[in-house]
Amino acid sequence: MRFLPRLLLLCCLCSGCEKEDAAPGPTALAGSWQWKSSFCGWSGASSPATTGYSEVLLLDLAGRAQLYRNGALQSNTAYSLSRHYSAFSQETADYISLDNRELRYEIQNNTLTLSEETADGCSSSYEGSNR
User: What is the pTM of this model?
Assistant: First the structure.
């Protein structure tokens, strides 16, 4: 009879736990992303018009990321996706890890935003194509 109260207590404790959703799979990001603009706390705004170069970020389903600047390959690296709590924004968010950096990402209306989670960190916007 002592087992039943313990079982009920365990069920009550576990039912109050909230499980984090799994990170979206690579299909959420796979495709070609054309750089539109960036904003960094200290250096300000930049775009293809102000820098004189264009960038395309290619993300494939196999977890590879390639960055092209003016058509020339600049980086070819693995990437991974995760979802976890952000101490910076104090909410659960989606992240992409690539080139030894972890960036928060959001996709809205065919726009991918990659952000550094620091007070003066950079945030870059990319428009999706061929998706």
Answer: 0.78
